[in-house]
Amino acid sequence: MRVSVVQMSPGHDKAENIAQAGRLIGEAIAADRPNIVSLPEMWTCLGGNRGAKFEQAEMLPARGSNEPGGPAYEFLRSVARKERIHVHGGSLAEKGGEKLFNTTVVFDPQGSEIARYRKIHLFDIVAPDGKGYRESSTYGSGDEVVTYEADGVKVGCAVCYDIRFPELFLALRRAGAELIFLPSAFTVPTGRDHWDVLIRARAIETQCWFAAPATWGKHLDGAGEPRFTYGHSLLCDPWGTIVAKVSDGVGWATARIDQSVTKRVRRDMPVLEHRKLA
Fold first, then answer.
1. Does domain 2-274 have CATH number 3.60.110.10?
2. Which of the residues 160, 178, 208, 236 is marked catalytic?
3. How do strand 234-236 and strand 226-230 relate by DSSP bridges?
4. Terminal Cα-to-Cα distance of the chain (whole angstroms)
5. Catalytic one among 14, 53, 58, 119?
6. Contact 12, 44 (CB under 8 A)
7. Is 245 a catalytic residue?
8. Is 205 a catalytic residue?
9. In this structure, are residues 210 and 180 in contact, taking their beta carbons and an 8 Å threshold?
10. Rounded Cα–Cα distance for residues 100 and 3 (Å)
11. Residue 66, pLDDT score
């Protein structure tokens, strides 16, 4: 399986973000012919105030209904169907009552939704640069561990801040995951110090491949203040080696997921069998 991670620089204009995603996905497919392509966290609307986030959010169709969704949902479905590939849709804002959800949707090559994951861990912190983030003021938290199968590979779902909670990734490994997607919008200060380290650690612990598409560059928050995300989208193998990476700017990276590598690492270092604690 060939996996492409797409790095975007989104703002709060959803139509412009969809156009950017379409261009980058098209370039990645033309150059690398991936079997599955993935987008970053909140690629549909990054920044803006609470009202803008609700305005750009989408009500997702009932699971399994195959009913039409909003513009971003239908864009992802159309790419999967047209290109005959799996599309791991990063995350978008899902309408859910008084709060939104930070939600991943995944489509198979027929354009059918095969997975939906709501981000569990919400980013309520003050970053090292002094900027505050309170995701829970707008978003609700999910409570499901989600996996799906793509081309014979069991795939696990996570989003951004989830990476700091290893118990989720152990649950994904125990559910059979071999590849875990981590669409993200890491801040520059936390990304610079922790991005590679955390992903490599989770890959080593779980002995899974990681695919981490991320946002990069400047966007404006609700008060019009600039915020910067780190980018450096990457793919990492089960030994913790980064095998492909995007630097600054928009773009993509592609790598082949080799299940024989996964089997060898798990055979030679059977950590799941050796675990003594939950």
1. yes
2. 160
3. unpaired
4. 31
5. 119
6. no
7. no
8. no
9. yes
10. 29
11. 78
What is the reported pLDDT for 222?
Answer: 78
Query: What is the rounded CA–CA span in Å between residue 136 and residue 208?
Result: 29
| Domain boundaries of the chain, sorted by first residue | 2-274
Q: Which two tokens stand for residue 16?
A: 């412009």
Sequential DSSP letters for the chain: -EEEEEEB---S-HHHHHHHHHHHHHHHHHHH--SEEE--TTTT--SB-HHHHHHH-BPPPPTT------HHHHHHHHHHHHHTSEEE---EEEE-SSSEEEEEEEE-TTS-EEEEEE--S--EEE-TTS-EEEGGGTEEPP----EEEETTEEEEE--GGGGG-HHHHHHHHHTT-SEEE--B--BHHHHHHHHHHHHHHHHHHHT-EEEE-BBEEEEEBTTS-EEEEE---EEE-TTS-EEEE--SSSEEEEEE--HHHHHHHHHHS-HHHH----
pLDDT at 111 (0 to 100)? 96
Whether 160 sits among the annotated catalytic residues: the reply is yes
Residue among 173, 180, 125 nearest 156 (CA): 180
**CB environment 7-35: b (16+ within 10 A), e (fewer):** bbbbbbbbeebbebbeebbeebbeebebb
pTM for this prediction: 0.96
Consecutive sets of 10 residues in the chain, 278 residues long: mean pLDDT of each?
98 94 98 98 92 93 88 98 98 94 98 97 86 88 98 98 98 98 96 97 98 96 88 98 97 98 98 89
